[in-house]
Amino acid sequence: MSEMVENEASASAHARSEAMQPVALERAMPSRLIRVVFWGLRVYILAMVVAVVIGFMRGAR
């Protein structure tokens, strides 16, 4: 009986070690719409930063 328990324990440990092996992942390509939206967001953030800089420059006078 104890031999059977040891075999099951070693088998489950072996299965866990196989399951824990690293797997190569592939990057998912975002759709064109998502890329356009994110570029738009970058441009918007840049425009807001420029507006803040201009506001500080005009307010400092």
The helix/strand series, from N terminus to C terminus, equals: HH
- Form type: elongated
The structural domain count equals 1
Q: Radius of gyration, rounded? A: 29 Å
* First and last CA, distance: 89 Å
The number of E-state strands comes to 0
Strand content: under 5%
Helix content: over 70%
Which descriptors would you attach to this protein?
single chain, about 60 residues, mainly alpha, about 0% strand
Explain this structure.
The protein has 61 residues and is mostly helical. It has one domain (2-59). It is built from 2 helices and no strands. The chain has helices at residues 2-19, 32-59. The mean pLDDT is 82.
Summarize this entry quickly.
The chain is mainly α and 61 residues long. The chain has helices at 2-19, 32-59.
Secondary-structure map:
Elements: H1 2-19, H2 32-59
